[in-house]
Amino acid sequence: MASAAQTLGRYRTAAAVVVGLAVIPLVPGLNSSYVLHMLILMLMWSVIGMAWNLLGGYCGQVSFGHAAFFGLGAYTGGILYYHLGWSAWWGLPVGMVVVALGALGVGYICLRLRGPYFALGTLAMGEVLRVTAENLEWLTEGTRGIMLETRTWVAKEPFYYVILAIAVASFVVLEVMVRSKWGYYFVAIREDQDAAESLGIDTTLYKNIALVVSAVLTGVAGAFYTCYMGYIDPEIVFALHDVSIVAIMVVMVGGVATRWGPLVGAVIMILLSEVVRTLPYIGRAHQTLFGILLIVIIIFLPNGVVGDFRKMMRFFLGRSKPAGAGGV
Amino acid sequence: MLKVNGIDVFYGDVQVLWDVSFHVGEGEVVALIGTNGAGKSTTLRTISGLLRPRKGTVEFLGERLDQIPPYRIIELGLAHVPEARRLFPEMTVEENLEMGALKPAAKARRAESLERVYSRFPRLKERRRQLAGTLSGGEQQMLAIGRGLMSLPRMILFDEPSLGLAPLLVEEVFNVVNDIRRDGVTVLIVEQNVRQTLAVADRAYVLETGRIVREGTGSELLDDEEVRKAYLGV
């Protein structure tokens, strides 16, 4: 059992990260709108990564369809704005409800499938929603998409603090869940679903909890996206490769079932995509390069940058250091 | 205590069990023996609710197990030590044991049960902070049994506990089964290791291609000409 002092120590890093992130817009040189745009995207992707990590990392239900939830959240805000004239920010609270209901629907169909079949089921779900959004023109404006005439703020700072707050809230919610007995249930389901069931865990219930929480957080990120970018269409927010796959990559690169993996993964992925995209000649092949990167990471850092941190350090600092030295 | 009445079980369209009936009385050790593919594990999976019989019933202490969700079965006092251990490899030994005591009654006495398991299996105490996946096969089997005991069951189902263990460890497993019986817990054990199983069992049933073909006390079956020829190779 962790004492109060240990608990404090454990979250000192978290507190430092939050304070550090909170002061960045005040630092001259770092507060350019380009840097803030990058940071906003990193935080948004870390929210999606954290959400995916709960379901895929801890509970072991690998989803290839998180774009479904991202898109539902995004379109809730978009539709409320376009048809009812509400502020798109209503997409956050209303989207949570819509996405939760959507997730229960997806869960009802997909959670009876296991392993790769679940992954394929969710993949299909994401695609079904994309095609639906493209064709339900009276509601979604189809492929024309929905554009906000004005965004709430011209400056980046307010958006930055909103997404920072969302990220901190997501981190806290997930941390509490994963450290509670639910976290043990999730891991037990990941490790062996039948054994978990025979020990008295209602696996259907807990898989649904993980799915709904994961989906809702992803939906919040989607609703934020609508407000921030000011334009959505089905190809963007229900994208298989640009949303569902990237969500997985963020977590894989950062570290599956680790506390900091999604944030680290999001930072790396956003930086990398920026750098790669600006490379002369091969920039257009950034998708290809991403694929190659993913393969390299799976082979050499199967636990991600956070999970295999020591291994990486040993590699860069020479092999003489004993494995047990220093905690991460 | 446990009554299985004429169950037919299918995997899809393929029938695996045909009209299987048997019972286990309070305090007994009953064995279900048979070769690979005879339907032993299918029978256990049906008892623990992971498969549903198309015909027939499974009753435990008067409750219909075939009608309640599997996760509730343990609350009735029926624990399952599954085939191939089915531990949570990325959890520590102690966490695995704690997962055995989830129902409120067992949770209230968790510390006490933990001590009991540790005193029965001192190795597990030594390794309590170690990940279960890093234990040896024998230790994993002990952990699986310990986890089953943590729920304070009235009856335990053992699915091939001797699978893949060295002879010395097999003996230890059967000693544990005997201890458990002495503590008043009823045991249903499924095994391919016929000789040692029949030696500890009060009664046994022989399953062949999904049907019960013989039953008797352990010593009766050990002396049975057919059983000796088919399973003991003598």
Relevant terms:
heterodimer, A: 328 residues, 17 helices, disordered C terminus, B: 234 residues, alpha/beta, six-stranded mixed sheet, four-stranded antiparallel sheet, 11 helices, 38% helix
Task: Explain what this protein looks like in three dimensions.
The complex is a heterodimer of chains A (about 325) and B (about 230). Chain A has about 325 residues and is mainly alpha-helical. Chain A has helices spanning about 5-10, 10-25, 35-60, 65-85, 90-110, 115-135, 135-140, 155-180, 180-190, 195-200, 205-230, 235, 240-255, 260-280, 285-300, 305, 310-315; strands at about 145, 230. A two-stranded antiparallel ribbon of chain A has the order 1-2. Chain A is globular, with a radius of gyration of 20 Å. The two termini of chain A are about 20 Å apart. Chain B has about 230 residues and is of the alpha/beta class. In chain B, strand 4 and strand 5 (about 65) form a beta hairpin. In chain B, helix 3 runs parallel beside helix 7. The model of chain B has no long low-confidence stretch (mean pLDDT about 90). The interface of A and B includes residues 184, 188, 191 and 196 of A.
